[in-house]
Amino acid sequence: MHPGRYANRAANIRAAAANFQQSLDAEGIALKILCSAEVRLDHEILSWVGEEQIPYLGHWQGERVMLLEFPHSHVPVGADKLVAWLLKQGIRPMIAHPERNKDILRSIDKLLPFVRLGCLLQVTAGAVAGSFGEYAQARAVDLLSRGWVTILASDAHNMEARPPELEPGRVAAAKIVGEEESWKMVRDRPAEIIGSIG
Ligand SMILES: [Fe+2]
User: Fold this and answer.
1) Is the dihedral of CA 63, 105, 158, 170 positive or negative?
2) Quick one: CATH architecture of 37-194?
3) Most buried of 1, 10, 96, 161, CB within 10 angstroms?
4) Distance (Å, rounded) from C-alpha 81 to C-alpha 106?
5) Cα(121)–Cα(150) distance, rounded to whole angstroms?
6) CB under 8 Å to 177, separation ≥6 — which residues?
7) Contacts with 150 (C-beta within 8 Å, 6 or more apart), sequence order
């Protein structure tokens, strides 16, 4: 959901996912699709929340989880105020790919207020494995070392440039956080958020 770029809302995202599920079922592919959205930081979020237009990722400790995306170039002034407002509504933001944000690449201090507020972090698995360059990799490793990372995700876009691949990132992360924690990041916590055990 990105105003001016991707005019998505809960209803059309759910319809597209249902359509995709139907095709999978018709082909006999045993895959269950759940949908959500990466929500670009924008003042429109305020009305989307009220109008129940956001497909949340699921729940974390009783709160709804919203996948929040900052612009790649910077962390906007006032973003912490929006996060505080979301938390007050019982919505816990999970920040998407913080390791690639230019401000956060320059200084990890830019992320600190959001971690202190209680944001969850979703790092792209490929970034840990080095697919997004050495700077994003160094930042991803830094975030893992600090114990700030909640989950690793594929951020898959397609089968070529951005395939749905987690394992190289999980293996690289395991060297920093250990085998057990790496599995929590790709399997247990995502399962908990979407409300399915194991
Ligand atoms: Fe993104």
Assistant:
1) negative
2) Alpha-Beta Barrel (3.20)
3) 1
4) 22
5) 5
6) 144, 147, 149, 185
7) 94, 120, 121, 122, 185, 189
Give the C-alpha separation, 195 to 198, whole Å.
10
CA of 124 to the centre of ligand 1 (A): 9
Helices of type H across the chain = 10-26, 44-50, 79-88, 102-106, 112-117, 125-129, 134-145, 167-177, 179-183, 189-194
pLDDT, mean of each 10-residue run, the chain (198 residues): 95 97 98 95 96 96 96 96 97 98 97 98 98 97 98 95 93 98 97 79
Confidence (pLDDT) at 161: 87
Distance 76 CA to ligand 1 centre (A): 16
* Contacts with 62 (C-beta within 8 Å, 6 or more apart), sequence order: 90
Which pLDDT does position 197 carry in this prediction?
Answer: 53
Residue for token pair 């792209």: 124
pLDDT of 184: 98
Domain locations along the chain: 37-194
pTM over 0.90: yes
Q: How far is the CA of 52 from the centre of ligand 1 (A)?
A: 21
- 3-state secondary structure at position 31: coil
- Ligand 1 centre to CA of 28 (Å) is 31
- 62: its two tokens: 């009783």
